[in-house]
Amino acid sequence: MPSRRESQRGFTLIEILAVVAILALVAAFVVPNMGGYRMRALRAEARQLAAQLELARQRAIVTGVPHRVWLELDQAEYRLEWLAVDPEEAAVAEASAEPSVNGNSPISLAAPRTVLLDYRPIPGNFGRLQVVADPFYFEAVETPQGRIDSGQVGVGFARDGSAEETLIVIEDAAGDRIALDVQALDERVRIRDDL
Q1: If phi over 0 gives left and psi between -120 and 50 gives alpha, with beta otherwise, what is residue 161?
Q2: Contact in structure between 71 and 154 (CB atoms under 8 Å)
């Protein structure tokens, strides 16, 4: 039969201190990297949006058609759009402009039906709605007209690639922020974390 002292085995003070020291060492390496991980993820989101903005500028120059990146601030969504005709309206206008084949119908002297241009998503993957990854969101967009905190806003690029100076701020729940600086004639979007 074991003695009373052997049956009541537990942890010694030295063993407990060793475990606490090991946990403190692990925490010392892990905790500082948690903030770095969040900033890397935030920077990756900013780079993805910056790529869309740069693509909009490049497409506007190449196609000669104004483009924009449409932002839905409340839902943290965005997509690439261009100034185009609604395909359904174009089909109706084209059908009404065609004369009769048999030549017996009267020709209308009314002005041709105007087809309105509006910003529409680019066909394919470029025009697909993209969502800013959780826990990040649009904090605000600063334009020459003022600061916009909610609703929708478009960052537009003219045919020559010029744009109004715009600052898009992305933030997370911990208060980390990063900004995308769209310059009027710069070829790239600057990512700034000096806010």
Answers
A1: left
A2: yes
List, for residues 169-187, the tens digit of each pLDDT value: 999 888 889 999 999 887 7
For the chain, domain boundaries: 42-82+129-192
CATH value of 42-82+129-192 in 3.40.630.30, 3.40.50.720, 3.55.40.10, 3.20.20.60: 3.55.40.10
- Enter the pTM of the model: 0.71
Q: How far is CA 185 from CA 57, 62, 148, 165, in A?
A: 10, 15, 22, 9
